[in-house]
Design brief:
binds D-glutamic acid; globular; single chain; about 280 residues; 6-stranded parallel β-sheet
């Protein structure tokens, strides 16, 4: 595959708006780089889709970002990280361009758990796709054998965010429902992973319905730290990331729909371009 060889922006991909919560933290920590964000809003949510479809959509998105000059792409989406990352790393990169890299969000989130939990009982709130993949369970068992993990699907949370209903009184019912459910299943949980990048947009409500002694773990800062560490350890990749402090937004939905909510979530004006994958 002939992707552009000159240095380019860091690609950040999500099914929709959720990856903006990761991009915000990455830019706070590493403002000097250029970023290219892609939200596949027209086909979100991914969380209820089959393994093959999430893989196919994610592969298309990654290739699009490579074609637009990115050498490094962050899957700022747990569902894509759970269902597509490994296959892309093992089967796509070796055939297309072994020097490009795709990183996910699950590993950096799991690594911190040793510091946040004293009961060693962890709860995962995530999309049905991420839960069914058991990617978090497998990663936790590898790094922290003996930790207890309870996985809770929250199928209504992404639609609440994608439709802009995240702050409505109607959202309370579904936010409380899944939190009650996971804490009833294991009352010893002292750390709840927000294992979907859309969920920080529901953070105020999630806090409201979670007991104060339970840590809530959004992923943005963890992923930003881990990217910074990655770039420090891989100077040849760092040299291929341009430093112009710009950010560009692509969406598969209409910009009229994407821009207002994206601006709200990012905390600064967003002007996107529509593309098809
Ligand atoms: N934001 C994504 C995640 O972290 C995907 C949500 C979805 O499209 O269902 O899982």
């Amino acid at each position: 595959m002939n992707y552009p060889s000159h240095p380019g922006p860091i690609g950040v991909f999500d099914s929709g708006y959720g990856g903006l919560t990761i991009l915000r933290e990455i830019r706070n920590l590493l403002p000097q780089y250029d970023y290219l964000y892609l939200g596949d809003n027209a086909r979100a949510p991914y969380g209820t889709r089959s393994f093959d479809i999430v893989y196919e959509f994610t592969r298309q998105a990654v290739e699009e970002l490579f074609n637009r000059g990115c050498h490094l792409v962050i899957l700022a989406c747990n569902t894509a990280s759970a269902k597509a990352l490994r296959s892309i790393q093992m089967h796509v990169l070796p055939l297309t361009d072994p020097d490009r890299r795709v990183l996910g969000v699950i590993r950096p989130t799991v690594e911190i758990l040793g510091k946040t939990s004293s009961t060693r009982h962890i709860g995962l709130l995530a999309t049905p796709g991420t839960v069914k993949s058991h990617s978090y369970r497998m990663e936790i068992e590898k790094i922290y054998p003996g930790m207890e993990i309870t996985e809770q699907e929250c199928p209504m949370w992404v639609p609440l965010v994608e439709t802009g209903e995240f702050d409505s009184p109607g959202a309370d019912y579904f936010v409380k429902k899944y939190i009650d459910c996971i804490l009833n299943t294991d009352p010893e949980i002292d750390t709840l992973i927000l294992g979907c990048t859309h969920y920080p947009l529901l953070l105020d409500k999630i806090r409201q319905f979670t007991p104060a002694n339970v840590n809530i773990l959004p992923q943005g800062e963890l992923v930003a730290e881990s990217l910074s560490d990655y770039l420090r350890r891989h100077p040849s990749m760092e040299e291929r990331c341009t430093r112009g402090a710009t950010v560009e937004f692509l969406t598969t939905e209409s910009p009229e729909k994407f821009d207002p909510l994206a601006s709200l979530f990012l905390g600064s004006p967003v002007s996107s371009t529509r593309i098809t994958l």
